[in-house]
Amino acid sequence: MSTVDHIAGYTWHGRKGGVENAFRYTVDYVMLDAEADLDTPRLFRRNGGGLTSVQDRDHGGAPGEGRGAAWAREVLQEHQLPLNGPLKLLTQPRVLGHVFNPVSFWLCHNEAGEMCAVIAEVTNTFGDRHSYLCLHPDLRPIAPEDRLQAQKVFHVSPFQPIEGGYTFRFDIREDRIGIWIDYAQEGKGGLIATLVGHRTPLSNGGILRACLRRPFGSRRVLALIHWQALKLFVKGARYRARPEPPELEVTR
To answer: Which residues contact 140 (CB under 8 A, 6 or more apart)?
Structure first.
């Protein structure tokens, strides 16, 4: 049996460029082995009803039509990546049946248990999804100081263009995590987003405390996203209409 970890963390977003905006919020993530039988607290369910849960249909494919770990394994196979070790999912859980994840992460390990690839699964507020496959060309383990590049191809914020690229950094440890995403537009602006927090075993007490401190879970996150969008609109940031999403489901 595998356990589930709880990351009661912080996310910080800071806009670069002419219109300044920054915010920092608390947020709850869970990390679990996406293929193992799980030993979970009573208030958490895997593919079942509960106060909190993680559902396969929310990940690995279009929102609500996901296939979970089977999808991630197919991505690795299609890109000829022989990573047969643990496949872990880092994501916000459903709370009272609702979920919205701006970004979740599939952490892909080799047989020695070293993390060698990350699939960053990005979902926008329009219901579109695209994933970025982050890895070294030689498939060596991803170290905390490593910076992995990806060309931006997916519309996320209506106040940012698609042009430019991401720099990802991942520091995943037994007791804490840190993820940094730097979006740059060739010197014209961009955005920095971070997720940091301590990693502890998920418990009924931790779930109840999280629900009291951050009611409604990711529904709260969605409301805060729209609040920040309103602030940017008032500040005069340029609004961009949603383009068609890319044809490819995953890029690297």
So the answer is: 116
Residues whose CB is less than 8 angstroms from the CB of residue 241 and which lie 6 or more positions away in sequence, other chains included: 158
Write down the pTM of the prediction: 0.93
* pLDDT band with cut points at 50, 70 and 90 for residue 218: low
What residue segments make up the domains of the chain, in order of their start?
2-238
pLDDT per position as a tens digit, 227-243:
777 776 677 777 787 88
